[in-house]
Amino acid sequence: MRSLQDIHEEYDFLDADERYRLLIELGRELEEMPAALKTDATLVRGCSAQVWVYPTGDAEKLHFLADSNAAITKGIVALVVSAVQDKAAAEVAAMDVAAALEPFDLRNQLSSNRTQGVPNMIALVREHAARIAGA
Asked: Where is the Fe-S metabolism associated domain (predicted)?
């Protein structure tokens, strides 16, 4: 998975249509999430599309599997995951993921329907990280 900084460098040079294509491409690059993990327990509430997030790894190196049934939303999921992937659980729990995503200006680039679930997704990722860090 590309780093958030690498993604932003590319994103910054693109026009609106190309940014959509990049988000779709990022979603396609997500590690496959097995269907058995797409359950009510891993579903992110409040998203207009279905989004699932599942933590793996341990306190030293937290790894997330994630997916969505909508292409652009899946790209947004990929942005969130790239911000936190393979970091220590305590670091993720304390991280301001929303601030890390601010350079992408998603609220002004995408419709509110596509971004409404982002805070819930971030909260779920941070809750998983806090639970694993405290275990």
From this structure: 14-127
Q: Is the pTM of this model over 0.70?
A: yes
One of 3.90.550.10, 3.50.50.60, 3.90.1010.10, 3.90.1200.10 is the CATH number of 4-134, namely: 3.90.1010.10
C-alpha 67/C-alpha 76 separation (Å) is: 10
Q: CA–CA separation, 107 vs 111, rounded Å?
A: 7
Q: What one-character-per-residue DSSP string does 118-130 give? A: HHHHHHHHHHHHH
Q: Are 30 and 81 in contact (CB under 8 A)?
A: yes
**Share of residues in the chain with pLDDT > 70 (%):** 98
Which residues, in sequence order, are bridge partners of residue 67? 52
| Residue 47 falls in the annotated catalytic set | yes
Catalytic residue among 26, 47, 62, 101: 47
pLDDT in tens, 68-101: 999 999 999 999 999 999 999 999 999 999 999 9
| Cα radius of gyration (the chain) | 14
